[in-house]
Each structure stands twice: as structure tokens, then as C-alpha cells.
Design a protein that fits this description.
The complex is a heterotrimer. By secondary structure, chain B is α/β, with parallel strands linked by helices. Chain B contains 12 helices and 8 strands. Helices cover about 40% and strands about 20% of the residues of chain C. Chain C has helices at about 5-15, 30-45, 55-70, 80-95, 120-125, 140-155, 180-185, 210-240, 270-275, 300-305, 325-335, 360-365; strands at about 1-5, 20-25, 50-55, 75-80, 100-105, 130-135, 160-165, 170-175, 205, 250-255, 260-265, 285-290, 295, 310-315, 345-350, 375-380. A 7-stranded mixed beta sheet of chain C has the order 3-2-4-5-7-6-13, with helices on both faces. In chain C, strand 15 (about 345-350), helix 12 (about 360-365) and strand 16 (about 375-380) form a beta-alpha-beta unit. In chain C, helix 1 crosses helix 2 (about 30-45), helix 1 runs parallel beside helix 6 (about 140-155) and helix 3 (about 55-70) runs parallel beside helix 4 (about 80-95). Chain C is globular, with a radius of gyration of 21 Å. Chains A and B meet through helix 16 and helix 17 of A and helix 2 and helix 10 of B. Strand 2 (about 95-100) of chain B pairs parallel with strand 9 (about 205) of chain C.
Chain lengths: ~575, ~350, ~400
């Protein structure tokens, strides 16, 4: 029993004997690392929030290392990716999304410039060797991720060059060849990757041989053959299919001559083609797409799937776009096109609940043209392994890309449900993680089921107004066929842009919880906070007021039911 | 002279000067617990019995961080006193005394006189709520200021007698309801205005007086540090929301305090020798209803279709506008220390954009 | 060496000899001369103290509370309304067991306004938990003041030194003041173990729940009872130093065989003694009991002092309206279980500064004979001055 002190004085800090933690009734604070929307949206699986954090701390190389944990080709994706991360960025609701792609590109270029070493080491000599078919973005990413998983990789590439579509179909104005070469060379030079050029699956080597020789086979052949295109059976004699036209241009610099051109399609190929044709002297170029332009009338899923800044530049350059429309009829003079009939359409839910394209009678109009360029996608050139291909694609049976053969996995465009370099890179990582798990006798890597931190979960009071960085750009009149249009933002702007990152869902170490807790129940400790934050909750004293959660800028602190498991060590 | 002797003399010299021996430097990693290793002074520790989300507990903790450890405190009767020192426990880690409701400033005066008599520099702080400062302890406070004691008096202003169960004080804002200023058919809450205490304090021509808010800890702590450096009477009134008395969710304490500043009803100003020398500019001025709507004590003002409510809202808006005009609170462009800039955080506490 | 000093001046000199670090006071008649003299000593550099000129008695008490809590010797003085304005602090000081010394220049309490002497003020804070010592003359006041600092320190209780306003405070008498060295040797430096100290930061003045409140009071009461011995011992010790004693807890004088006793506090007893000396030949002599320690109340000593008395006249200088005399009631209570205890005759007199003449002795002794006399009366009240319905 306590013994009364004279005058009833008390000793300092003895209140610690009184555990106010039992005042909490229903909820306690918890650290919850929600996915940042940029990360959730990234097809390559980058955690932009994580690498921006390193940059905020002033460490570009560490930021790059964090970035290339997912994506070995930032100098490429920083130029060609449609950056859904920026579309998703919560800062868009404040003062403009982060210029993520500019900073990514700057980091990629810095890595090339300074020769920063990829965070991988050479696998053991007797490590399992994985066969990778195709040296496009999916294959190269897969080879790189093999090294990260301690596996060796051998890439079989049919052509004499690496890079796949990055090399054959992306104009230099978007992706200079020296950048592409530099980044690919740095990855392919890593010890543990063997490259076999001019080795075509089905011609020079069989799938059985690969399976026999290697621990697993990753198929990333890409899509090489254009789909047959006609409108009601009419095919113009001088048909130029979009991707072939683009490849011809990239290879030889040649473009067909034309006056008024219609490009039909809604992807990056159609955008590239339209812009090239315009720059080569076409009187008018009109893009007809079934998708919609970004805006209030268009559902996000229905938006035209192109790099937003490419769209912006195309409009600057005078490309006309007719969205939510299709070519209904070709008007031919002999076997030559002289015009098209265009009809409005929309993607609407059908009776089966799935979206269908519905054309609207009475919206038809005829436009005179000299040339129609379809850009409606390509299929796998299945020669030599046709048994794997189903209606043009290697259609995998699970999210990791597995096919109906043991340890054979499909990646990239050949899957039929991809369409960007970033997605191909993401496939490389996913496929290797699946294969590595299988080889180690472990279950499949679990999908990341964390929730995404939406802007409503942030407390934006704590973010100062900072305008988005702008990148230098060539004026329309100065744009040529071989000089990059968008420029480098430079170190100062990149570092400043990093400070704009809201760190959605992850601890900023801003000290708000530590400063604002009326009960001193937040303990600052870098050593003991194992969750990547700098803080622990002292639940012996936390009264559960919820103040820390409300004042957490990033939504990293959330109030959870009392019975929920602690995410931290006691 | 031996080294030990020299050290002994140096220590006694320091002891003479500061009233205490300096704490021995703690070698890194020698703290027994992470709590002990916190890189800030814990003058007010955990285990106190303030309500959930208590603005006053937070304000006192922030003040202690910047003021301690070479201080001693005289604390007026009130929530802060009761919830920190239920015998045999105390949440304080500095010498602390509570005597009565209305005499904190006088008790502090005696402590300061004692320090003077001993030739020590230990700074004396006096803490009181708005009841103990604006009302019952006002005379003692005025005497303390006039006698020019070297004391920092901190008033934790939660705008009513909370310890006794939410009765109105002279600091209760106009039209707020309390148990002694309820709203009814004949009344719309408190009939009178919030006392302009800071002007009265300033009229004592003391070196420094200021208002601060728990919503802006960096500003609050700067003001404490500034006051601590002054040899003479200084005064700080800290707006400290009371979730129970103001009837808002405990998680909203900071939000409510921030809006009070951002609408102009609680201006953050600094006064030196009677002249306003600094104010915190408001980056985006909010309407007072943004502040009122979060609090049950103003719920009667938020009823639609009630002409009296509309009139009182307009009155409060006019009072806020008056403050904004008189103190020039409206910011001119973005400022790193306006209400928006000072709140900005960055990774590891660094303000975003100012690397 | 004797000096002719006004009572207040003598008190100020005595206080200065005790070297208080902090003095706080607010002027009120008839205490003013004490603080004025202290101020002058400070102004002349004869006394080194932080003199805090407060804005009220409430703050005066609070300032000395804070100063003593911070570990220094502190002193204040007041009277009348000042005591009442301090009342809340006085209870607080005692409850926190803070050693302090305060002079009360006893004065009536308003209304009606009266600046003259009686004991209503200190009586009103009888239950505050302070030691209350009453002084019969200015030499006693000087000696008791110095003793009070030591008593306060040894008991960790506050001590109120009561002296009659004007009658003592404003009267010149030859006074023996000890040498500074003597006091320095006799009075140990101030130590307060529970002082506010950044090296050992205690919290004073906590909230005590019902489960320990009774124990707080028990310990305070016990400390007051133990203080009886300390008061007596300190007085003896002082006598050893100066050859002067103040009577310890109470002092008995007059013929041992007397059957009548008269008990009073403060300067009244001097008047009674003169009255006895000058009484008529047929008037009985009396045993005079000077009650010095009113709190703690010296029950044992009082019982011994009353041994053999048939009558005990108790003089009160204040009244508890609706009951009567406070001292008289308490004396009666203490003697209640004593076999053959004297009959108590309780009278208040000298209220609001009314002069107590020497002849009162004879009148008091005569009144014993009246079998119809009430147990309590205001002895010198002239009922003719009242409207009939108020008599």
C-alpha cells in the first residue's frame, strides 16, 4: 500500500504507473502501408513513392536502385511510358500530379551517365538457367529479374538486334537510339545473362530443346504479324498497315506520300503514325478511334490508350481526332481508297453485362481521303510453336502467365492482354518470381492485396503549394524525324519535384504523430520501428483519441479495431 | 589544483549559475527504454489522465519541450493540475507546485523571488487555464506583470471552466453554449464577448506577450523559446481545444484549432512593449462556419431557418473580420510562415520544397 | 542592551535578524508600521531580502508560499481583512506543511468597519492548521517572532505570531534585541526537504482522493500535537540564550492558593494583572493564566494550570455569534472530564478596540458571585445603547 508523503507530494514521472491505454474502447492507431496510387497504377510494378522517398532524402543513386528493383529500363520507360502513375497521382487534386516520368527519365539517364551499378550480383555457376525467348522489354526484364532471384538467364532472340518493338517501332523522336542502346547494353552486360541472337524459336531451336536444357522457359516473342484488316471485305490495294509502316520508317526512314490521311486505331502506334505522316507532309491527318478523348464524357477505362503528352503534342501538331467513332465503309475508286464513311459509336454494356461497341445509325458521314492506315494491333507470329498459340496470342491460364506446359510462362505483348513497354517489364518480374518460387518448391508469390491510398485518406493541410515541374520541349516547327522532342528536366528540377511527392500511404517521418500526441504515446525510434516508419505506438498509454491518424499527412496511421493484430513488435 | 577539484568547482559554478548541475551527457544507446531515449525533453510524461484528444495536455507538453528542464512551475487549479497530479502520481518531471485557483502568478512570483535571493537562473513558469487567468487569477497576474518578475505565464485557453463541467468564463466566445450559458428560447448561448485579454496584458508594457495555438506547434514552440530568453515577465495564451467542452470528436482537436486561426476568430499575434510586432498571416481565410460546424457548442448557430442563428453567425463572422482587419491577418501571397507554409512537412520533418 | 522601540519597529528588526530571503506584504492598519520598517531596512541595505510589494494580501500569502516551497525562508504580516482575504491560502499553506512565519497585528473584522484591536481575525482562521502564538507584550512579540522561524522549520508547520493591534504594534517599550551573531548561531539556516528543486523535481500540492484524505488530516493533526513539545522546548532554548522566556505553551502567575483563575491571551492579561495589583482590600486575588499557544491547544498544561481552582474566568477578544466565546468554549471542553474542575465564566471584552480598564478585574471577580449570570456575556457591552428590541 502507498504510504502518504508529507504534504502529499509526488515523485516525478510516477504517472507512468498509470496505464491509460486501457481507456481505449474500440479503436487503436496502427501503421498501415497502403499502396500509393502511382504504385498501384504502374504496370511495371514500380513503387514510385518508395524511390521518391530516397530522392527526397537527397540520394539519387539510392532512388534509382529502388526504382530498378522493379524496372531495369527507366531511361526507356521515362520516355515512352503512358505513365498511368501520373494519372493516378493524388497530387493532381492539389496542384498537379507529380512529373514522375520526367524524374524517372532523369534518374535513368544519370545512371547511364555515371555508370551506377545495378543492384544484382552474379548467380552461382550452377544456378538454374532460364530460357527467355525474345529480347524485347519483357525478355530483358525477365533476364534481369532472373539475376535478382539468383537464376541465370539465356535470351534467344530471332533478330540480329535486341530491344524488340522498342527498337523497331518507336520513333527516335520519342526514344533516341543511343539511350536505348546504352540502357540495354548495361543490363545485358550483367554477369549471368547470355544472349543468343539470330536464334528463332521453332526454326533454330525447339521448345522441347529449351525445356530440356533449361530450368524453365519464358516466352516473350512479342507480336510480329499484322492482323488482317478489311472493311466489309474491302481491302485497298495500297494498304499500309500501321505497325509495318512504322517499322519501315524506323528501319529505312521511308514514308509513303499522301495528301489526306485517316489513321484508324487508338494506341501509341496510331499516334506515332499519325504524327509521322503529318510531319512528312500530309495535308491532313485524322485519327479515328473507338475510344474517347480524356474528358468528362469518357469513362477512364474507355480513354484512348496513348501517352498523354503524346496526345497533347499531336494536337499541337495539327492532328485531328475523331473519337468514339469507327470506319463503317471504305469508298473505293477501283482498288484505291478515295474516302471513308465514319460512324459514331460507344462502348455500352450489353445484355451479357459486358461492354459492347454500339454504332449509332444516322451518324454516318463521308470524308474524302487518299490513304487509310489501320493500326489495329498485331498477333504472335506463331511459326514453329503454333501449338501454344490460341487465336493469335499465347493466352496464359493465370495472372502470372503460366501456359499449359510445365514451367513455360508467357510474357509481354504475346499474352494479348498487354500493350505497353511498362507492362512487358512488369511481366518479366512477375514471370520470374513465379518460376523462382516453383523452382524453390514454394507457393506462388502472393498478389499484393493492400488497399490503395486515395486522396480522401490524406491530410493535405501539411503539404505546401509547389507547382509541377515542366520539361523543355521542342517547338512544333522544330520537330524533326530524329531529334528527341521532350528534353531533360535536370537535377535541380528533379530534386525539387521529388519534394512534391505526398508519400501517400507511407510514413514521411514528418513527426506529426510524435508532435501531436497529447499523451506522449508515440515513441520515435528508427531502430525499433520495423515497419519502415520512425515511430512506435506505446499502447500502454495511447487513449485512442485518433488525433495522430487525423493529422497523419499520408494516411499511414489508421484507426483499426482494438482486436486487430498489432503490426508492430510490442 | 587537482582535476577533480577543478571539475568540482566548475560544477558548483554551473550550479550557481543555473540552479542545477548540468545533466551528464548520455552516451548514445544507454537509455533504458526507447521512451527515455526520446530526443526531446519530456517535462510532462504519459499516464496523465486528460481526456482523449485533450488540447491542453498537448499544449502543456509542447511548452515543456521547449522550456525545460531548468524550470519550475506554479500551476493554477484546473484540468491540467488535476489530470497530471492525482496523488501519489505525477506526470511532471520538473519541480511543480499547485496551490490554488487564483494565485498561480503570485506563487510563481514567490518562487522567482526565491531564485533571485539564491542567485539562481532557474526560470519560473506559471500555468493557468482561462478561468484562472482571464477571471479569478487576473489580479494576481496583473500584479506579477507589474512587479516585473522574470516569469513566463502560460494560459491554456479552452474557453470555459472545463474542470468543473463546462461553465462559461470571460474567455468563452460569444454565442457559445456552456452549462451556464445554454441556448434556449430566450438565449443564443453566451451573450457577451470573449475578453480581449492580450490587449490588457499588453497594456502592462511587458517585454513580450503572444497568442499561439496547438495547431501550429512550431510557432508555439518558437514563442516559448523566445519568451524563455527574456529576463522579465512574458505571457503566452495558447488556444487549446477541449473535445468534451466544445463537443467535437477527439481526433479533431488540431483541425478545430487550425480552423479557429484560419477563420480569424483566434488571431496569432505577438506584442512587444505594447506594440504588435508580428502576426501569423492566414494563407486562405476560411468562413467562420468552417470552424463552428465542427463543434457542438455552436450547433444552435448552424440550424437552418433560424433568423437568430443567422444573426449570430453574421456577428461571429464580423468579429473574425474585425480581427483580420485590425491585425492585418490576411496574407499577401504565400509565405513560409503563414498558416499554410508553417504547417508544411516534408520527409524527416524537412519542409517540402525548402531543401 | 535595551532600546526604546515601537512594537512594529521591534518586530521588523527581529524579522531582519532572522534573515528571511523573501518578504511579501500588503499594507493594512495596524500592520503597516511593520512593513514600512522592513521596507526601510531593505532600502538602507540593512536587510538583504527580496521584498515583494504585492497587490493584495492574497498574493502576499501566495508569494511567501511560493518562496518557501522554492526553498527559502519567507515572512509576511497582515491583520483583519487581510487575514480573511488570505484565508484560502492559509489553509493551503498549512495543508501543504510549508514552514512560514506571519505576524498578525490583531484587529477586528468588518462590518462595521473598525481598525481597532480584537482577535476576530486570527480566530476566523483558527482551523486553518497554522500554529497560533499570542504575545502579551512587545518583548514577547520580538522573542516569539524569532522562535517562530525555528518552530516552523522544526515542525514543517506555518506559525502565526499574534500581537494586539495598536496596543502592542504602536506602543513604545524598551526592548532587548539579540545580536545578529546570536540569532545566526541559534537559528539554523533554512532547509526544506520538499523544496522545488530541478535536481529532484517533486510535485507539491497534489489531488488527494478520499482514500488518503483522512490520513492527510490525521498526520497534520498529529504534527500540531507534536508541536506542543517543540514550542515549549524552543522557548526554553531561547531562555538559555537570552535569559528570557515567553511562557512556553502557557504561563501561570499569581498566588498558588487562589481559588479564582483568569485566563486570557495577548496584552489583556497585563491589564488584568495591573487590576489585580490595584484591587480593593476585599477583592480576592486570582491565578492568572496566560495562554500563549492557542493552536496547538495545550490541553494537558491547561488542566494542570487549573488544578485547585473553583472558578475560571476566561476572557475572549472575539466571539462566535450564536455560541459565545471561542477560547471559553474550548477551555470548558478541555476541563469537562476533570473531576472538581472549576466553574467557567466566559466573557468577551475589548471588541473592536474598546478600552479594557484596570477596574475590570474587580468587576470580573464580583460577577462570579452572581448566580444568574449567563455562561457567556460580552462583559463591557452597555445595553442602554441598544434599542429595546435589540438588548
Amino acid at each position: 500500500m502507498a504510504v502518504l508523503t508529507r504534504g502529499a507530494f509526488a515523485e516525478p514521472g510516477t504517472s507512468l504507473d498509470f496505464k491509460t491505454g486501457n481507456w481505449r474502447s474500440t479503436e487503436k492507431p496502427s501503421h498501415y502501408h497502403a499502396k500509393a496510387p502511382c504504385h498501384a497504377a504502374c504496370p511495371a510494378g514500380e513503387d514510385q513513392q518508395a524511390w521518391f522517398a530516397k530522392l527526397q532524402e537527397g540520394h539519387p543513386e539510392a532512388a534509382w536502385a529502388e526504382l530498378v528493383a522493379a524496372n531495369p529500363l527507366p531511361a526507356v520507360t521515362g520516355r515512352v511510358c503512358p505513365h498511368p502513375c501520373e494519372t493516378a497521382c493524388n497530387r493532381a487534386t492539389l496542384d498537379g500530379a507529380l512529373a514522375i516520368h520526367n524524374v524517372e527519365r532523369w534518374l535513368g539517364d544519370e545512371a547511364i551517365r555515371f555508370g551506377w551499378a545495378y543492384p544484382v550480383s552474379e548467380p552461382a555457376v550452377d544456378a538454374p538457367d532460364v530460357a527467355i525467348v525474345g529480347a524485347g522489354p519483357a525478355g530483358i526484364s525477365a533476364a534481369y529479374h532472373c539475376l535478382r532471384q539468383g537464376l541465370r538467364a539465356t535470351i534467344y532472340e530471332a533478330s540480329p538486334e535486341t530491344g524488340g518493338l522498342m527498337r523497331s517501332a518507336i520513333p527516335r523522336t520519342r526514344l533516341p537510339r543511343d539511350v536505348l542502346d546504352a540502357e540495354l547494353d548495361r543490363v545485358l552486360a550483367l554477369s549471368g545473362i547470355t544472349l543468343e541472337l539470330r536464334t528463332r524459336l521453332g526454326r533454330d531451336v525447339s521448345l522441347d530443346e529449351l525445356q530440356h536444357k533449361h530450368a524453365g522457359v519464358l516466352l516473350a516473342p512479342g507480336c510480329q504479324s499484322g492482323k488482317a484488316w478489311s472493311v466489309d471485305g474491302a481491302v485497298p490495294a495500297d494498304l499500309h498497315e500501321g505497325l509495318h509502316l512504322l517499322k519501315d520508317f524506323v528501319d529505312h526512314g521511308a514514308l509513303p506520300e499522301a495528301g489526306d490521311v485517316i489513321v484508324h486505331g487508338g494506341g501509341n502506334t496510331s499516334m506515332d503514325v499519325a504524327r509521322l505522316m503529318k510531319r512528312s507532309g500530309a495535308a491532313s491527318v485524322t485519327l479515328v478511334t473507338a475510344s474517347g478523348l480524356p474528358g468528362p464524357g469518357t469513362e477512364p477505362a474507355d480513354e484512348i490508350n496513348v501517352v498523354p503528352r503524346e496526345l497533347e503534342e499531336a494536337l499541337e501538331e495539327g492532328i485531328e481526332i475523331i473519337d468514339h467513332a469507327t470506319i463503317n465503309r471504305l469508298i473505293m475508286k477501283g482498288s484505291r481508297v478515295t474516302g471513308v464513311e465514319i460512324m459514331s459509336l460507344r462502348k455500352l454494356p450489353g445484355q451479357d453485362g459486358r461492354p459492347h461497341r454500339v454504332g449509332f445509325e444516322g451518324t454516318e458521314r463521308v470524308v474524302s481521303v487518299d490513304m487509310v492506315i489501320p493500326c489495329i494491333g498485331e498477333e504472335v507470329d506463331a511459326e514453329g510453336f503454333a501449338e501454344l498459340v490460341d487465336h493469335g496470342y499465347l493466352r496464359p491460364k493465370d495472372r502470372l502467365g503460366r501456359l499449359n506446359r510445365d514451367r513455360v510462362i508467357a510474357l509481354g505483348d504475346a499474352r494479348g492482354d498487354r500493350g505497353t513497354v511498362a507492362a512487358a517489364i512488369g511481366d518479366g518480374r512477375l514471370a520470374v518470381s513465379a518460376l523462382a518460387a516453383e523452382l524453390a518448391g514454394q507457393p506462388d508469390p502472393a498478389p499484393d492485396l493492400r488497399t490503395e491510398m486515395k486522396s480522401a485518406g490524406l491530410n493535405t493541410t501539411y503539404y505546401d503549394h509547389l507547382p509541377r515541374a515542366t520539361s523543355p520541349k521542342r517547338a512544333v516547327a522544330e520537330r524533326t524525324f530524329d531529334t528527341e522532342i521532350e528534353g531533360d528536366i535536370g537535377r535541380a528540377a528533379a530534386m525539387a519535384e521529388a519534394q512534391r511527392c505526398l508519400s501517400c500511404g507511407n510514413c514521411l517521418a514528418c513527426d506529426n504523430c510524435w508532435s501531436f500526441c497529447p499523451d506522449n504515446a508515440v515513441i520515435k525510434t528508427v531502430e525499433l520501428a520495423l515497419d519502415g516508419s520512425h515511430y512506435l505506438f506505446d499502447l500502454d498509454y495511447c487513449k485512442g483519441c485518433g488525433l495522430c491518424a487525423h493529422e497523419c499527412p499520408t494516411g499511414f496511421i489508421q484507426m483499426v479495431p482494438e482486436e486487430a493484430g498489432a503490426e508492430q513488435p510490442a | 589544483m587537482s582535476v577533480a577539484n577543478e571539475r568540482g568547482e566548475r560544477l558548483s559554478e554551473l550550479r550557481q549559475k543555473y540552479g542545477r548541475e548540468p545533466l551528464p551527457p548520455r552516451a548514445e544507446g544507454t537509455a533504458d527504454t526507447p521512451r527515455e531515449a526520446q530526443p526531446k525533453f519530456r517535462g510532462l510524461d504519459s499516464g496523465h489522465r486528460a481526456c482523449q484528444g485533450c488540447g491542453e495536455a498537448l499544449a502543456a507538453r509542447l511548452v515543456m519541450e521547449s522550456a525545460g528542464p531548468d524550470v519550475m512551475i506554479a500551476n493554477a487549479t484546473g484540468c491540467l493540475e488535476v489530470f497530471t497530479t492525482p496523488w501519489p502520481q505525477s506526470a511532471w518531471r520538473v519541480p511543480w507546485v499547485h496551490s490554488l485557483f487564483e494565485n498561480a502568478a503570485a506563487v510563481a512570483s514567490g518562487m522567482e523571488a526565491a531564485m533571485k535571493a539564491k542567485g539562481r537562473n532557474t526560470k519560473v513558469l506559471a500555468f493557468g487555464g482561462d478561468g484562472g487567468t482571464y477571471d479569478i487569477g487576473f489580479q494576481a497576474l496583473s500584479g506579477m506583470l507589474e512587479r516585473y518578475h522574470n516569469i513566463l505565464y502560460v494560459c491554456y485557453d479552452n474557453e470555459a471552466y472545463m474542470n468543473t463541467g463546462i461553465q462559461r468564463s470571460s474567455s468563452t466566445p460569444h454565442s457559445a453554449t456552456t452549462t451556464t450559458s445554454p441556448a434556449g428560447k430566450e438565449r443564443m448561448g453566451k451573450r457577451h464577448l470573449k475578453k480581449d485579454l492580450l490587449s490588457i496584458i499588453a497594456a502592462h508594457h511587458i517585454p513580450y506577450s503572444a497568442s499561439a495555438s496547438v495547431a501550429f506547434p512550431a510557432d508555439l514552440q518558437r514563442k516559448v523559446r523566445y519568451a524563455m530568453g527574456i529576463d522579465g515577465p512574458t505571457f503566452l495564451v495558447v488556444h487549446s481545444p477541449c473535445p468534451l467542452g466544445w463537443r467535437h470528436a477527439s481526433a479533431l482537436t488540431i483541425e478545430v484549432a487550425r480552423r479557429a486561426v484560419e477563420c480569424g476568430l483566434f488571431p496569432l499575434v505577438e506584442v512587444e512593449r505594447g506594440a504588435v510586432t508580428n502576426v501569423m498571416p492566414i494563407r486562405n481565410v476560411r468562413p467562420v462556419t468552417d470552424y463552428l460546424e465542427l463543434q457542438g457548442r455552436f450547433a444552435h448557430l448552424m440550424k437552418g431557418g433560424d433568423a437568430r442563428a443567422e444573426e449570430e453567425r453574421a456577428h461571429l463572422q464580423a468579429l473574425a473580420d474585425y480581427n483580420i482587419g485590425v491585425f492585418g491577418l490576411k496574407g499577401e501571397g504565400e509565405d513560409p510562415v503563414d498558416t499554410g507554409g508553417i504547417a508544411a512537412v516534408g520527409r524527416s520533418g524537412r519542409p517540402a520544397g525548402r531543401v | 542592551m535595551l532600546e526604546a522601540l515601537e512594537g512594529s519597529q521591534a518586530i521588523a528588526r527581529a524579522v531582519a535578524l532572522c534573515r528571511p530571503d523573501v518578504v511579501a506584504a500588503y499594507p493594512i492598519t495596524p500592520q503597516t508600521h511593520i512593513v514600512e520598517n522592513l521596507s526601510r531596512l531593505v532600502a538602507e541595505g540593512d536587510m538583504h531580502t527580496e521584498f515583494v510589494s504585492v497587490e493584495s494580501e492574497f498574493s502576499a500569502a501566495s508569494v511567501v508560499l511560493g518562496a518557501a516551497a522554492a526553498g527559502v525562508r519567507a515572512y509576511t504580516a497582515t491583520a483583519s481583512q487581510g487575514v480573511l482575504l488570505m484565508a484560502e491560502v492559509l489553509f493551503n499553506i498549512a495543508g501543504m506543511r510549508i514552514p512560514l512565519v506571519m505576524t498578525v497585528a490583531n484587529r477586528a473584522v468588518s462590518a462595521p468597519l473598525s481598525i481597532w484591536n480584537d482577535h476576530s481575525d486570527s480566530m476566523a482562521v483558527r482551523d486553518s492548521g497554522w500554529i497560533q502564538l499570542h504575545c502579551a507584550d512587545n518583548q514577547e512579540a520580538v522573542d516569539t517572532t524569532i522562535q517562530a522561524f525555528r518552530i516552523a522549520q522544526e515542525t514543517e508547520l506555518p506559525v502565526m505570531v499574534c500581537m494586539d493591534g495598536f496596543v502592542l504594534t504602536h506602543t513604545m517599550e524598551p526592548i532587548a534585541l539579540p545580536e545578529q551573531k546570536e540569532v545566526d548561531n541559534w537559528l539554523p539556516p533554512f532547509e526544506f526537504s520538499r523544496r522545488l528543486d530541478p535536481d529532484d523535481p517533486k510535485s507539491l500540492g497534489t489531488l488527494v482522493a478520499p482514500d488518503f484524505f483522512a490520513e492527510v488530516r490525521h498526520s497534520h493533526h498529529g504534527a500540531m500535537l507534536k508541536a506542543l513539545d517543540v514550542i515549549a522546548a524552543v522557548d526554553r532554548d531561547w531562555e538559555g540564550l537570552t535569559g528570557r522566556a515567553c511562557g512556553g505553551l502557557l504561563e501561570v502567575s499569581g498566588p498558588a492558593e487562589a481559588k479564582i483563575g483568569i485566563l486570557a491571551m495577548g496584552s489583556t492579561l497585563g491589564t488584568i494583572a495591573m487590576g489585580m495589583e490595584h484591587r480593593g482590600p476585599d477583592v480576592a486575588s486570582a491565578r492568572l493564566i496566560k495562554l500563549r499557544a492557542f493552536r496547538p491547544f495545550p490541553a494537558e498544561a491547561l488542566r494542570a494550570a487549573c488544578d485547585g481552582l473553583d472558578h475560571l474566568i476566561v476572557i475572549d477578544r472575539a466571539i462566535s455569534p450564536g455560541l459565545g466565546g471561542v477560547v471559553g468554549t474550548e477551555v470548558a471542553a478541555v476541563l469537562a472530564d476533570v473531576p472538581g474542575a472549576p466553574r467557567i465564566h466566559n466573557h468577551a471584552m475589548g471588541l473592536g478596540g474598546r478600552d479594557i480598564p484596570e477596574t475590570v478585574y474587580t468587576d470580573l471577580v464580583a460577577a462570579i458571585a452572581d448566580p444568574d449570570a449567563p455562561a457567556f456575556s460580552i462583559f463591557d457591552a452597555d445595553l442602554q445603547k441598544l434599542a429595546p428590541e435589540d438588548r
